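My main concern about presentation is that the manuscript never shows what a single data entry looks like. Each protein is reduced to its one-letter sequence and a matching series of backbone shape codes. For the editor and my fellow referees, an illustration may be useful. For illustration, here is how one protein appears when written out as sequence plus structure tokens:
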Amino acid sequence: MDRQRSSSHRKPLVALILALGGFVSQTQLTHQVLTAMNYNRPFFVIYVTQSVFTVSVLVHLLYLVITSKDSMYSLCKGLKITIAQRLRSESASPDIRFPYANFFLADLTLTVGFTTPTLLWCVGMSLSSTFPVVLAMLQASYVIWNTNAFFAYLISVTVLGQQYHNNKFAAVVLATVGVMLVVYGGLKSEESVLHVQSPSRLVGDLLALLASVLYAGYQLFYDGFVQFPLVSPQSLDNFPSESTPLLEDYKDAIYPSPYGLESSFWTSMIGLCTISLLWIAFPILQGLGIEEFGFPTDGSTMLAILGAALSGAAFMTGTMMLLASWGATTTAVTSLLTTVLVFLTDLLLGAAVGIWSIFGSFIIVAAFGMLVLADSSPVFMLAPTTQESNT
């Protein structure tokens, strides 16, 4: 075992930048693809985006190899041990034989947990509005989706039994109100009537609401999953070698894995599972007349989709790291900062500015600050809590 590392001493600033920057870039490029470039195949865009998640752990490993003296072999071996111990965390046994059945079940659960609310939101978005996709994303369906911050906190308190805090609850509510002001504050009066009165509006809004609840559940599941304790490397060193034939593997492994590498790994596994399974939906959607399968025919659209996919991979990787660092509630409210950034980018691109949108942006930032102060884990952790040690 080369080094013991603690993820708690690494400040998640890079993860925050990845999450916020990736979301803004993905949003703007996806808007261009689905509207200006007239490539209205949202499921295909989602499939490509999630498939590109696969590169996350590869990029992270290359970065660690380039910026440190760690070898790819030691990093991969330590990652395998970390995942194995995570999946068998209820047992204190030092046996590190990889539990493949538990791994495939966890990967499938994470993929379904992330993909289902995404697809439901897209369907709800298309049913909820008679406006173009850009306006629809920035109106009711977008607001309903961002209520996942509220549901994440509600579920964590009522179902998981976490302690209730008035200031955290107020921060979640304020952030949601701020999103509504940003989204609706910039609309012109003739655009204020968001939907026609039809059954499809109600169905679409209900699907978006269900998507928000499911996504909150996904965040809480991953938050709880990565909080399971790993077997201490020091305690493993005390075991006699005959107690586990595989104990020798720890000698040249980086265990536990460096900060964020485990999150990058699970992000890549979601992408790999997407490639393997979601293609089945293409003939079904085409047969039902919902979406005709077809590759883009011009290079600019291909590049825009690729850019949106890479941005989505950065966003997902950063979000998974934040979930492991801060927990579901803080991460959910943090994601609402993307609303402010999208608003600012629209402003830079020449969009009209409403006073309520500006006010809503300040509310979101203030709510984020309240949650940071209320959270026991500081956002920008400057001092390490556990020193690295060489063995």
In short: The chain has one domain: 3-375.
